Amino acid sequence: MRNGLLLFLGVFGALALSWAGLLMTANRQLGHLGQVKDPIDESINPALLSGVANEGLLVYQDLGCVACHTQQVRGEGYGADLARKWGQRGGYARDYIRDHTVFFGSRRIGPDLRNEGNASLHAGVDADFLYRLLYAPQSVAPGTNMPAYPFLFDVHPVKGRQRSDYAVRLTGRAAPPEGYEVVPTPRARQLVTYLLSLKDTYDYPIEKSRNAPAEEPKEGGH
Amino acid sequence: MTDSAPNDRTEQMEIDASAKWPVLLFFAAALCWLLVGGVLQLGASIQLHTPAFLSDCVWFTHGRLAPAAQNALVYGWGMNAGFAFGLWLMARLSATTLRHGGWLFVAAKFWNLGILLGVAGILGGYSTSFELLEMPRFVTFLLLAAYALIAAWSVTTFSIRNTENVFASQWYLFGAAFWFPWLYAVAQVMLFRVPVHGVLQPVVEAWYVQGMYGLWFVPVALSAAYYLLPKILGKPIANYYLAPLAFWWLALASAFAGSSRLIGGPVPVWIPTLGVVANFLLVVPAVIIALNLFGTLAGRWRALGGSVTLRFTALSMFGFVLAAAANLLLALRSVAEHLQFTLAAELRDWLMFYACFSTAMFGAAYFILPRLTEREWRSAALVKAHVGATVIGVVFLVVGLAAGGWEQGHLLNNGALAFTDVTKAMNFWFTWRSLGFGLLLIGHLAFLVNFAWIAFPLAPKDTVVAEFRNPPDLALPASPTEEGHA
Predict the structure, then answer these.
(1) Which residues are registered as beta bridge partners of A184?
(2) Is the reported ipTM for this assembly greater than 0.85?
(3) Per the CB < 8 Å rule, is B129 touching A83?
(4) Which of residues 73-92 of A touch B (CB under 8 A)?
(5) Fewer C-beta neighbours within 10 Å, C or N terminus of chain A?
(6) pTM of the model
(7) The domain B7-474: what is its CATH number?
């Protein structure tokens, strides 16, 4: 190996091949996935995020939630994601086309959040629960190592002003001093709206059939 | 050999003199980032078992601190050290001086300014949330421009080489010089400039992350091992004829290996499968490289006792083998089912970046710096502290992350266990991890002090030097006997 030009071409070729073979091929296959209209109830899926939820996505991004939380549900028979109620089914590529930024994540220091807003899986999870979780995690999940996010909340005296409709209902050690209330800032509201919008409830007929196990051939059938 | 030895030495001294200040500058920047990144990393690690630690300040919430630490370490320590080592070695192996080094000062300033802005940007809330690409978009151009200048120097030095042969270390350095800007530019374009949709983003992310570790840090580490082993042992690389095969095979397979990170994810199955195949293919170059390096060291293990550089290089070689094994294991579907989102997956990246790359750079630094400054390490105790803390820290973390990841994986896959119980059980391993990072940090601090002592001495040399015993490997080799280069 003495020829610098050959070395250059080889080095270039190796990476170019993976770019074309992996990234561009995947882009060809997945780059144009679109929403699907359900033939029966005519709903359009996946539903787009609301404006506030999209703002919340940015909060999720800037606070780095992805450092500890994944957003990918592994399917039946692979891991315990479904048993942990992190989803009703394994995820499909189409679920993610509504997200401006996709937070797959690579570490599960905390639970998966892909279906955090799915009420049929997580009964007690509503806005109030999430505010309490963000403000004082130990008050709703004792023993968790999730940090508190006090900077997403505003603690101020009630005196001389109207009580906030959004004031977080806290009891015990997490409760603010008498005469004070804990109010989520706009950023907290956006984040919680985003978290509640996280749900992959619709099962796409095409993906479902593609991902289902092959049926056993029937004995003696036609 | 006997006739040419004095001339070779003069030539080497000329080259060293031309490279001195750029290399010292890059090493100094690298070591500062190593310390800063290490402190941030330790802080982020403490937060996993003591969540209240620094949590009141939005700048230091775990989600910002952890990526800031990783970016400071990867771009600040890793790449600066790689530049220092790569520029020096390229000049040495090409038997030509490093010309117009002043421009490298400019490049170094912009590169480090970019990282400073980037890390501050992450802490300040401008993170992009893509692994290793968290630095806000406004630093992209700064980093690419600075990198272009640095890589251009390395490539130019290579192209005006005065040697017949091109040695293995040069292939790896040459490859790495080109791979980073392409990986980085493609990832930036596909994620931010013209963003791809949906799950393609994680595909690009996985390709980039594995590319950074597998096509930049590992090759630079290998180029150090290929150079330092024969240089210090005074014997050629064993089975050298196989080395070109390993290089091309490694380059081709590493580029595809990233997608195995998406096993079980919501992407078409062919994407992770391609990565799995690539990881299996990587066994061949890993075996060849191990044959090359361990074959050279075989029978000369005693030499480790006499050379700090060799000890770090050997550690890096073990790191390389372990990283190859970890990559392979995590590409197995049944293993990934348990380990892919745990500390064990972190271990894979850490093995490539720290156990393989960083240790190689320490070894190279112990070899290069006395030659550049023409001074000997002032404190043998600090050298010992660095070696000791690194060896113990690496073993400690390999054991802890592997065992902790194994337990974490099985707890997570037990659907009946509440999540907070998983966390409580993992507290032990999170604490273990903090201890490991703390241990390494002690070594880094020792190294930084020793480095500052010889690179930028405050007191005149002769007043301090006599009190300390010098590490044995510092005697300059009398006759360079390695093949293929000056």
Answers:
(1) A153
(2) yes
(3) no
(4) 73-75, 78-80, 82-84, 90-92
(5) C
(6) 0.93
(7) 1.20.210.10
